[in-house]
Structures are given as C-alpha cells and as structure tokens.
Amino acid sequence: xxxKKLGNSDLAITPIGFGAWAIGGNxxxxxxxxxxxxDSVAAIHRALELGVNWIDTAAxxxxxxxxxxxAKALKSWKGQRPYVFTKCGMVAREDGxxxxxxxxxxxxxxxxxxLKRLETDVIDLYQIHWxxxxxxxxxxxxxxxxxxxxxxxxxxxxxxxxxxxxxQEAQKFAPVTSLQPPYxxxxxxxxxxxxxxxxxxNIGTIVYSPMGSGLLTGAMTRERIEKLPDDDWRAKKxxxxxxxxxxxxxxxxxxxxxxxxxxxxxxxxxxxxxxxNVAVSGAIVGARNPGQVDGVMSVMDLSxxxxxxxxxxxx
Length: 315
What we know:
Elements: E1 4-5, E2 12-13, E3 16-19, H1 37-49, E4 54-56, H2 65-75, E5 83-88, E6 90-92, E7 98-100, H3 104-118, E8 123-128, H4 138-150, E9 154-160, H5 164-171, E10 178-180, H6 194-201, E11 204-207, H7 222-226, H8 244-261, H9 266-275, E12 282-286, H10 290-297, H11 306-313
Parallel strand pairs: 3-4, 3-12, 4-5, 5-8, 8-9, 9-10, 10-11, 11-12
Antiparallel strand pairs: 1-2, 6-7
Helix pairs in contact: 1-2, 1-10, 3-4, 8-9
C-alpha cells in the first residue's frame, strides 16, 4: 500500500483514515443520530484490518464520547497501533450546542482531557478544530500548541478549517504540519487558493467529508433524507435541501455509473477523486459499522484514469 508523508512530519499515512465524527453518537449539535458503540468498535477494527493506519477524532465529537470509543477499540485491537489524531477548540454547552475557544489555557486543558479519554501518553497529531473570528488570537493559540509538542504531550501540530491568511499567521511563529479542510465534488472551494498554498508550503492536507457527508455514497435518496432523524445534523443543511439537493444527487448518480463499470461503489469513486489531487495527503472517511467500512475502504489504492476524471469533471 502506498503511504504518503504528512507535511513536515515523520508520519507516513495511508490514503484513507478512519473518521470518528459519527461514532460520537447523538445528543449534541452536530450529532449523526443514535449510534451503537459495539458497531463503532467493530467498524474501527475492520478499517484497521484493511490496512488503515490513522484515526481522526475530536474532543467535541459526542462531547468526548468518540475519543472514549476510539480508546476502547484500540484497547482490544491486537495488531499494530494506528496513529491517533484529535482536535481542540470547540466547547460543549449543557444544552448540547457548541461554542468555540482557542485560548491557550483551554487548549492545554483540553489536551490533557483528550489524553485521558484516549488512554494514551501522547497524541500523534493535535489540531485546532476551527480558527477564532479574531485572527489575533492565533499567535497565542499556536504557541500553546507548540508548547504541548515541546512538553511531549503531542508529536505534531496542525489546524483544521483555516484559510490561507490564518495559515500564514500561524506560520509566523512555528511550522504548520497539516491542514484539515472539507473537500469533495460538492465542496471544491479549497482548490482555488488553499490546496495550492499547502502544496507550496509543504503543509499536509487530510480532507474531510470526501463523500459529501453521505450524499455521494450512491445510497442516499430523497426518501432517506426525508426520514433523517431530527438529531442528525444533516437534516437541516443546504446540501441536503433544494435547490442543491437535485444537483448533488445527479453527481452521485454519475459516480455510481462509473463505479459500476469497475465493480466499485459511488463512494469509492468520490474518495478516489479527492485523492487524485496532488495536494491531498489523505482522506478522512467515516463509517458507523463494518459493512460501511467494506463499502468504501476496501480499495485503499484506487486510482482513476484520465478519462474517468474527465467524465467526473464534466458533470
């Protein structure tokens, strides 16, 4: 399997990483609905059996529950331990909603809490989940992140959802190992400035939602979307509503047609399309049970032909 070096780090990652957002469960603002922990553990184990060597989670996913499930899965895993990436900067409220904070004291405290939940002494990649509205806060936040690295709490530090200006602000004080942006056929904004900048600056990129949060799997239908539970954050988001929905389902239908020619799923084609971009180091792919893992992660080194890329780009 081809491994790719993540930015300026010594981490050699597989093309696909296991995304642990959905396994955080429900009861919070960005939950995906009810989730069975046994299914989550089995999904992680199946991904590792297929060769995936990194897991991406965050303190906010299920208000810490995702990190605990990851720890549980790794405790019972008998193979080589994967890299574990997590994130800070989102604050849980009692009513289930989310706030944002990247103040140094919070970052330090949240890292300690994540280490405890993950049952580990060191985090392989620690990331700021979202930037502050005040770009002036980045300096102190990035210094706190690098103090964690100097103290041996984390091995490498990165960011998520930063734009070029915010990346440049952080780079004034210390190198940025990686960026985690959203990227898919239905969300291509990062192609214009952010991905080229990361490639130029040797900042690794691990993209999230390569299947459009389920829209590009080929299994999503209007009927299924209409039945999404109220505690599934996707139910109220524009990509799952008109006028965007018709366009997005048409893209998924084309991916399904391409996949059928190669006995692959639409989701696998969608993931391969993101990895086709030379600036992309890896794609974060979520799964809630082993069957979903097999449906999208079973072909780790899938590549698209020029003709297939042209067909997809012409949608």
